[in-house]
């Protein structure tokens, strides 16, 4: 198939440090190319890919502050794919927030399918319903439910690269919080849970205003340590070395890639049951999704004793790149066939 993959142009694909959308897009591109598909990636020029790269901007707008407003940069990148739509069987637009490609759905000769990487609000879904026929691919069944009234062509869970996340059978003696410092990610709750459980906590994320105002006063350099933002190797080392990953999210999320990353290293997770969390964690095998922080704290001792080899094995079953690539390829083929059927006399 001739496939256009439109990535965000905030940074390169794959990302130099954090960036779940770019990391997943990279795995998808590589998997499709390996299967013989003709793939064009629309992304920042600093990207490294086996696909054909089409770049309007040499670097992403996170690196070049002159590229503003960022929404216009995303629109230009998407438009570049639609302008060449006759060369593709399908265009897949990855959007962190707004599915800008909806506006092109009735103009493009190739089907434009959208994946959004956040938890849509009711007003957003209502607005998107102006294009009820435009297809979406959800990243979880929980997110698909949020897209009620829209056309959901399928659900495909994210994948992680097992080669980049080696198995660690013997962890060190710490819990880990790895994610952006926001109220919704539950970093304060992670600190509270670790202190109440009597275990050391490592925090890994870039400093921001929320960190300086809220989190920094909780960091003592001994029982609560901040390692800063880490690269891919550092991320794998921290995930594999943890006794458990703490994921006490306070707001719904459509997936939670760090859960799959931790489990692939063999590290079990202790999470709050919000959004797609309960869909991703196999209770008693890879961790548990708890209903409250009190239950999470009480459950940490049991979570840290789970069989790490079984955690790894289940993660490879559920989050291997082959499964993700095959899922997307099936949906692409179905969308392209439906478009051809509509165009047949």
Please tell me what the overall shape is.
globular
Strand content: 15-25%
Give the class-level CATH name of the largest domain: Alpha Beta
Largest sheet properties: 6 strands, parallel
* Count of alpha and pi helical runs: 12
Question: What share of residues is helical?
Answer: 25-40%
Q: Order of strands across the widest beta sheet?
A: 10-9-8-11-12-13
**Named CATH topology of the largest domain:** Rossmann fold
How many structural units, i.e. domains?
2
**At the fourth CATH level, what is the homologous superfamily of the largest domain?**
Glycogen Phosphorylase B
What does this structure look like?
The protein starts with a strand and ends with a helix. It is built from 12 helices and 13 strands. It is 37% helix and 16% strand. It folds into 2 domains: 2-159 and 320-343, Glycogen Phosphorylase B (Rossmann fold); 162-319, Glycogen Phosphorylase B (Rossmann fold). It has a 6-stranded parallel sheet, with helices on both faces. A 5-stranded parallel sheet has the order 3-2-1-4-5, sandwiched between helices. By secondary structure, the chain is α/β, with parallel strands linked by helices.
């Amino acid at each position: 198939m001739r496939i256009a993959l439109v990535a965000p142009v905030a940074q390169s694909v794959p990302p130099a440090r954090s960036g779940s959308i770019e990391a997943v897009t990279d795995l998808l591109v590589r998997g499709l190319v390996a299967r013989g598909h003709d793939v064009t990636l629309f992304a920042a020029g600093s990207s490294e890919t086996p696909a054909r790269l089409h770049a309007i901007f040499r670097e992403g707008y996170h690196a070049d502050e002159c590229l503003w407003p960022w929404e216009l940069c995303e629109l230009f990148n998407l438009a570049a794919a639609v302008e060449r739509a006759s060369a593709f069987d399908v265009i897949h637009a990855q959007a962190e927030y707004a599915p800008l490609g909806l506006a092109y759905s009735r103009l493009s000769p190739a089907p434009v399918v959208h994946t959004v990487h956040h938890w849509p609000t009711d007003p957003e879904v209502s607005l998107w319903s102006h294009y009820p026929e435009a297809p979406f691919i959800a990243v979880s069944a929980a997110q698909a439910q949020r897209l009620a009234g829209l056309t959901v062509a399928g659900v495909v869970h994210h994948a992680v690269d097992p080669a980049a996340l080696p198995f660690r059978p013997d962890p060190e003696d710490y819990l880990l919080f790895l994610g952006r410092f926001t109220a919704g990610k539950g970093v304060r709750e992670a600190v509270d849970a670790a202190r109440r459980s009597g275990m050391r906590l490592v925090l890994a994320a870039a400093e921001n205003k929320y960190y300086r105002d809220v989190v920094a006063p909780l960091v003592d350099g001994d029982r609560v340590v901040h390692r800063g933002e880490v690269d891919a190797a550092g991320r794998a080392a921290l995930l594999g070395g943890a006794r458990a990953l703490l994921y006490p999210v306070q707001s719904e999320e459509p997936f939670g890639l760090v859960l799959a990353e931790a489990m692939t290293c063999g590290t079990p997770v202790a999470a709050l049951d919000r959004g797609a969390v309960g869909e991703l964690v196999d209770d008693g095998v890879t961790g548990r999704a708890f209903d409250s922080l009190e239950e999470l704290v009480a459950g940490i001792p049991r979570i840290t004793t789970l069989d790490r080899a079984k955690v790894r094995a289940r993660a490879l079953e559920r989050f291997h790149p082959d499964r993700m690539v095959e899922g997307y390829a099936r949906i692409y083929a179905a969308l392209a066939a439906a478009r051809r059927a509509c165009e047949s006399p």
